[in-house]
Each structure stands twice: as C-alpha cells, then as structure tokens.
Amino acid sequence: MEHGILLSGADNIDFMIHGVFKYYFFGHEVWITTTHVCVLIVMLLIIGFAIAANRQMAKAREVPEGFQNVVELIVEKLDAMVDAPMGKAAPKFYNYIGTIFIFILVSNISGLLGLRPPTADYGVTLPLGVLTFLLIHYNQFKYQKPKEIWEGMCSPLPPWLPIWLPINLISEVAVPISLSLRLFANVLSGTVMMALIYGLLGVIATAWPAALHVYFDLFSGAIQTYVFCMLTMTYIANARGDA
C-alpha cells in the first residue's frame, strides 16, 4: 500500500488513515500508518526547537534579543497560563502542561505544513485524556482523605445515602473520554472539511483555501489546545482541593 502523508499536493485526497509500510513483530503484522509518521515529524520539530532553545539559553544574555526573546516569551506565557488555575501548586505542573500544550498545538497546526494532524486520530487524543485522568486521581488520593473522596462521590446527598454514587462514578470515568473526544472531533472536522474542499473542487481550490486553513488549523487548533489544557488544570486543581 502506498498512500501520501500529505493532505495536499496529491490527486486523490482523502482524510482517512492509511498504512505506509508494514513489518512483522513476533509473527504479527504491524502497520506504520500516516498518524505514526506525522507524530514522528511533529516530535522531531519540537525536539529540534528544544535543542536550539537549550543551546541559546546556555549562552543567554542579561538583555535578551532575537531567538532568546522568543524562547523566554513562550516560557513566560505558558507559566502564566498555568499560574491562574493552579495557584501555589503551579510550579509542579509547568513541565506537564507546557509539554502537552506545545505537542497538541504543533499537532493541530501541522495541517499548515500539509500533514494530516495527529490529533485527528483518536489513538493520539485518548492517551492524552488517560494521562490527565491518571494525574487527576493521583492528586486526589494524595491530597484528599478517603472520607472526603467518599463525601464528594455521594454529593449532593449525605454520605450515608449514596444514591448519586453511580452517576458520579460515570462522570469520573467520562472525563478522559470527553477530553479526548472534544479535541479529536474538532480537529477531525477541520481535516474532513479541507479534504472535501480539495477533493471535490480540484483545480478550483487554489489559493483561497488558505483562509480556511488559517481558521481550521491555526485559530481552531489554538482554541482546542487551550481548552484541553485549561480543563486539565481545572480538574487537577479540584482534585487537589486546597493543597
């Protein structure tokens, strides 16, 4: 099977995930798909930027200029974003929130490079949701007493009347699903729209779809990144209580 990685620049454009090549692992057929390749490209871009930023900051000047300005601006903005919802616990989550923010944002806007956004694959967004889910409950069990957790699960009724317990359990389990589906569906919808435009309009789709790319890839991608991170921080802050 030979399928293009790019959304544009091919005659037969679609929005599906395709196998690029396969190999055998302990007798099992394993496919490397367009998603794997696009995730690898996104990771290489981020790692390349991180290496360049590290070398720049190793020889940082007291009065920043050029690339050092860009690096410091990114760090300051990400830290400020975490400070508001996380309060005094913010420094503990700078790295995690900053990492997922940059990964999701670069993945979302990778459509501007002609790639199929990795976040348009539920196999990418679900693990992000599960990581957040594990982090939420790690902090909950670390900073809340079992009695407090039980009371919260039985709320709004008294803890000796756990009628709402099943509903609250379902709402807890739904957190990673809702987080991952929101991100996945919004990115996939933009991918589908652009694929339909290129596939159905052909040569007519010249130049003007750039405006749609700005909306679906850049604006909507940035909004969905911010929403995912803000919800993550809100859930974690609630799980920590006043810790």
Can you characterise this structure?
The protein is mainly alpha-helical and 243 residues long. 66% of the residues lie in helices and 5% in strands. It has helices at residues 34-58, 67-86, 94-109, 122-143, 146-154, 165-201, 209-240, and strands at residues 19-25, 28-33. Strands 1-2 form a two-stranded antiparallel ribbon. Helix 3 packs antiparallel against helix 7 (209-240) and helix 4 packs parallel to helix 7. The model is unreliable at 7-11 (pLDDT under 50).
Q: What kind of sheet is the major sheet?
A: 2 strands, antiparallel
Shape: globular
Measured distance between first and last alpha carbons: 54 Å
Low-confidence stretches: 7-11
Q: If you average the pLDDT, what whole number results?
A: 82
Tell me the series of helices and strands, N- to C-terminal. Answer: EEHHHHHHH
Q: What integer value in Å does the Rg equal? A: 21 Å
Q: How many β-strand stretches? A: 2
What class, by secondary structure content?
mainly alpha
How much of the sequence lies in strands comes to 5-15%
**Number of helical runs?**
7
Helical fraction: 55-70%
**Strand line-up across the major sheet:** 1-2
